[in-house]
What does this fold into?
Amino acid sequence: MDSQQMAREMMRDLCTLVRGPVQDLQGFSGGEAGALGYLAARGEPITPTELSRELNLTTARVANILNSLERKDYVQRT
It folds into this structure.
């Protein structure tokens, strides 16, 4: 397994662990923190559908996460 695949699996597992009302110290929901960490580890663009599949989240949940991260200026959609 290469490091990219390992990072994807680790972030997917992290998202599974922190689902729900968990908040970290920077004011992110667990889903936001997991998605942002995954995107940072990936280092290249990904579609919301692909992100949903990678993190095992519904497309609606991913849309809400991305909307929130975009409002906070952490992600930019292209």
In short: The first helix runs from residue 3 to 18. The CA atoms of residues 37 and 57 lie 15 Å apart. Residues 20-25 have pLDDT under 50 and may be disordered.
